[in-house]
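During the no-cost extension, the postdoctoral fellow (Dr. R.K.) reprocessed legacy sequence entries with the updated structure-token encoder. One reprocessed record is reproduced below for audit purposes.
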Amino acid sequence: MAIIKKSKLREFSDAELSKKLIELQKELNAERGLLASGGRTSNPGKIRQLKITIARILTIMHERKLGIKRKNAEGEASAKKEVKAVA
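Re-encoded structure tokens follow.
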């Protein structure tokens, strides 16, 4: 499983995000189980990638729950500049 970019995840609906979250959690549990039983993974960085992607999905779901809208990195940067200019 490759890392899914935030911009791509934001295009998913809530149902698709939930489905992807469950899929990734199952995959992470399988990888952890393999390591716990003394096995080796084919890709050592896979667990880290899965954890990062799961965290991204959970963050996006929480933002939607709170009603936070983020479009892109440029919008975030300009919002930060405005706050600094006011302060």
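The two ends are 43 Å apart (CA to CA). The chain has one domain: 6-86. The remaining legacy entries will be reprocessed before the final report is submitted.
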